[in-house]
């Protein structure tokens, strides 16, 4: 299991970027997926997790206001379709320790979405992708599931093939090759919300 800590100063959060939505949850959470050729009998599965900053609970801290949201992403075989599937059944698990800092709460009026990407190497097959938010005071555990995500065996395909069609909020030429959303020299910002002009 991987644990990744991400702290974001939202004063600098400007334009970032079929998805699964959870507008009816206390925290606005969306997930989308894409799969790509890798090698060695495995394919690359990308999971895009979007969090509605305006739906988080911020608390005063010396440098402004702070919110924390631990999100656990699990990839499980598609047959494990019962709610509350154990992490022991997962072929990949990663916990994102998301932390957001605001100088003041006026920025919440912009209803910004923050997008984080998780990458997993998996064998070709059918999977369910699950995003879980741990319980907190006044909030029960939240779970969002994308069912029957098909990861093709790209290596076995003859000739050129289309991988995933990804909805993006912006596409621009990348300054380098190290960015989280860089593919083939382009920076492609995922848009799991499917909302037109997200964060514009």
What features would you highlight for this structure?
single chain, 200 residues, mainly beta, Immunoglobulin-like, six-stranded mixed β-sheet, four-stranded antiparallel β-sheet, globular, disordered C terminus
Write up what this structure looks like.
This protein has 200 residues and is an all-beta fold. The protein has one domain (2-154): Immunoglobulin-like, CATH 2.60.40. Helix content is 0%, strand content 51%. It is built from no helices and 13 strands. The protein has strands at residues 2-9, 20-21, 29-39, 42-52, 59-61, 64-77, 92-102, 113-122, 125-133, 142-151, 168-173, 182-183, 186-190. Strands 1, 5, 6, 7, 9 and 10 form a 6-stranded mixed beta sheet that branches. A 4-stranded antiparallel beta sheet has the order 2-3-4-8, with no helix packed on it. The protein has a 3-stranded antiparallel beta sheet with strand order 11-13-12, with no helix packed on it. The chain is globular and about 55 Å long. It starts with a strand and ends in a 10-residue tail after the last strand.
Outline of this structure?
The protein is mostly beta strands. It has no helices and 13 strands. A hairpin with a 7-residue loop joins strand 2 (20-21) and strand 3 (29-39).
Largest β-sheet summary = 6 strands, mixed
* Total count of domains: 1
Tell me, what is the CATH class? Mainly Beta
Q: N-to-C terminal Cα separation, in Å?
A: 35 Å
Please name the CATH topology.
Immunoglobulin-like
The averaged pLDDT comes out at 77
Proper CATH architecture: Sandwich
Question: Helical element count?
Answer: 0
Which stretches are low in confidence, meaning pLDDT under 50 for 5 or more residues running?
11-19, 196-200
Radius of gyration, in Å, reads: 17 Å
Q: Helix content range of the residues, please?
A: under 10%
Strand content: over 45%
Shape: globular
How many E-type strands?
13
CATH superfamily grouping: C2 domain
- Structural class estimated from helices and strands: mainly beta
Q: What order do the SSEs take from the amino end to the carboxyl end, as H and E?
A: EEEEEEEEEEEEE
């Amino acid at each position: 299991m991987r644990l990744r800590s991400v702290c974001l100063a939202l004063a600098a959060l400007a334009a970032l970027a079929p998805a699964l939505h959870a507008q009816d949850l206390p925290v606005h959470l969306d997930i989308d997926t894409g799969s790509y050729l890798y090698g060695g009998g495995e394919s690359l599965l990308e999971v895009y997790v979007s969090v509605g900053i305006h739906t988080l609970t911020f608390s005063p801290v010396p440098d402004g206001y702070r919110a924390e949201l631990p999100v656990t992403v699990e990839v499980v075989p598609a047959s494990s379709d019962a709610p509350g599937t154990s992490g022991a059944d997962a072929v990949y698990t990663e916990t994102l320790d998301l932390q957001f800092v605001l100088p003041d709460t006026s920025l919440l009026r912009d209803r910004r979405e923050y997008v984080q990407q998780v990458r997993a190497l998996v064998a070709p097959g059918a999977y369910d992708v699950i995003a879980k938010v741990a319980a907190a005071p006044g909030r029960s555990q939240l779970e969002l599931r994308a069912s029957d995500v098909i990861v093709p065996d790209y290596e076995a395909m003859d000739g050129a093939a289309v991988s995933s069609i990804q909805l993006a909020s912006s596409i621009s030429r990348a300054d380098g090759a190290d960015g989280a959303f860089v593919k083939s020299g382009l920076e492609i910002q995922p848009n799991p919300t499917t909302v037109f002009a997200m964060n514009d």
